From TrEMBL:
The keyword Ribonucleoprotein does not apply. This is Biotin carboxylase. Residues 126-330 form the ATP-grasp domain. One of its GO terms (molecular function) is metal ion binding. Transmembrane segments: none annotated. It comes from Streptomyces candidus. Gene3D superfamilies: 3.40.50.20, ATP-grasp fold, B domain. Keywords: ATP-binding, Ligase, Nucleotide-binding. InterPro entries: ATP-dep_AA_Ligase, ATP-grasp, BL00235/CARNS1_N, LAL_C2. SUPFAM superfamilies: Glutathione synthetase ATP-binding domain-like. It comes from the Bacteria.
Length: 441
């Protein structure tokens, strides 16, 4: 009989409420399977529940906008009447605040709504850490071009201008001179304005200008359970220039012990200071080898996306990360890996130009490379692909996931597989939003 969390009612079918899903089926399927292995069915609350969900693992799916507070809260109350709800989980930034509100409403474990707000607004996050300036870059809130010009006097060059409530590397602009500011601000004003991306609906027109941190880039995957911080691993990241789109991940990190200790220390200090508890976290930071210091980029109150949580951590450690997400959400401590890790990594296929995706060739060759676990296609043939700054996510056509007994063997497998893949583009019509169709091999 499965171990019950504090919200479960004996004799009733226990469920975990998912507020939203990751977009790719290969990434969201492990979340359902993790809930099943931990003894729960899933109730999905999402604006547009996708087709093809695993029916045997799904108790119910409801189409509801998590940001429509009154309607969402009413649906949560209905779900609590029909099911024994043991926990609430979100898998994306957009669901962090609604999930926190639902958990609090039902008296279940979860991050507080106040801490969730800090997780979703980078300016408020930095303000909460302002008494610990060694953790964060110099920063300022920006709402107007004049704000940004004045902020640069404090922050200096090079700098980064980005949305306060960004997600998925949307809208990150590097500023190396005064001439870079006006076009960057104009584009971000469009992106975060009233007619812009819905991810910014609660923080319209709010930007953060901060110093560009040097060093290597990393993410930290872990949990906070009843005040105890568990770091499950550090991931090394590679990003593109100049828009800092994430290109590749390697887990576990190749950082030397002293550097890894600095990153872990930063992580614990940040999540405690922000009041995170009873949640997963995905923290991004920069490590400066010259000074031996780590500083925060941002921290999310949910599992890492881009297949880090769904695949890389579990493939490397032997302990599926998503099972621990379910455990913590239902009031139980995470399981810590107790065996030497393998290595896992991901590298993305980027569109070589804007236009219409015709096809991706070389899949059989890529899947035949030793160590390759998956080749993921995020765009279907015929999809219109746009490049930054016009659009920030559609240029990633797919990704390769590989494992090996060393970081070098994983890197070699990813390189061989992506070299075997050829993305063919054709000029596409203007003005069509990129599609979200996904397949995987």
């Amino acid at each position: 009989m499965p171990e019950l969390g504090p919200g479960a009612r004996p004799g009733a079918r226990s469920v975990v409420v998912f507020v939203g899903l990751r977009k790719n089926p290969l990434e969201h399927r492990p979340a359902f399977e993790a809930a099943h292995r931990e003894g729960y069915a899933v109730v999905l609350l999402a604006a547009r529940p996708p087709a093809g969900l695993p029916g045997a693992l799904l108790a119910e799916a409801r189409a509801v906008d998590p940001h429509d507070t009154a309607v969402f809260d009413a649906v949560v109350d209905e779900i609590a009447v029909r099911h024994s709800v043991a926990g609430v989980v979100t898998w994306s930034d957009a669901g962090v605040e609604p999930a926190a509100r639902a958990a609090r409403r039902l008296g279940l474990p979860g991050i507080t709504p106040a801490a969730a707000r800090l997780a979703r607004n980078k300016y408020l996050m930095r303000q909460a850490l302002s008494g610990q300036p060694h953790l964060i870059p110099r920063y300022a809130r920006v709402r107007t071009l004049r704000d940004a010009e004045q902020a640069l006097e404090h922050v200096g060059f090079p700098a980064v201008l980005k949305p306060a409530a960004g997600s998925g590397s949307k809208g990150i602009f590097l500023l190396r001179s005064a001439g870079d500011l006006p076009p960057a601000f104009a584009e971000l004003d469009r992106l975060t304005g009233a007619d812009g991306d819905s991810i910014f609906r609660n923080d319209r027109g709010e930007l953060v200008l901060e110093e560009l941190l040097g060093g290597s880039e990393h993410s930290v995957e872990g949990f906070v359970h009843r005040g105890e911080v568990t770091v499950c691993g550090i991931t090394d990241k590679t990003t593109t220039e100049p828009f800092r789109l994430e290109l590749a991940h390697q887990h576990p990190s190749a950082l030397p012990p002293a550097a890894a200790s600095a990153v872990r220390a930063l992580t614990r200090e940040v999540v405690v200071a922000l009041g995170f508890d009873d949640c997963a976290f995905h923290l991004e930071c920069m490590y400066d080898e010259e000074t031996g210091t780590a500083r925060l980029v941002e921290v999310a109150a949910r599992a890492g996306g881009d297949f880090i949580g769904s695949h890389l951590v579990g493939l490397a450690s032997g302990v599926p990360f998503h099972e621990n997400v379910i455990r913590v959400a239902t009031g139980r401590a995470p399981r810590v890996p107790d065996r030497p890790p393998l290595h896992a990594g991901l590298r993305k296929m980027m569109a070589p130009a804007a236009g219409k995706l015709v096809r991706v060739d070389g899949l059989d060759t890529a899947l035949g490379v030793t160590g390759v676990q998956h080749v993921v296609l995020d765009r279907a043939p015929g999809t219109t692909v746009k490049l930054p700054p016009e659009h920030f996510s559609s240029s990633a056509v797919g990704a390769v996931i590989a494992t090996g007994d060393s970081a070098e063997s994983v890197a070699n497998a990813l390189r061989a597989a992506t070299d075997a893949l050829h993305v063919e583009m054709a000029p596409g019509p203007e003005g069509h939003a990129p599609g979200e169709a996904s397949t995987h091999g």
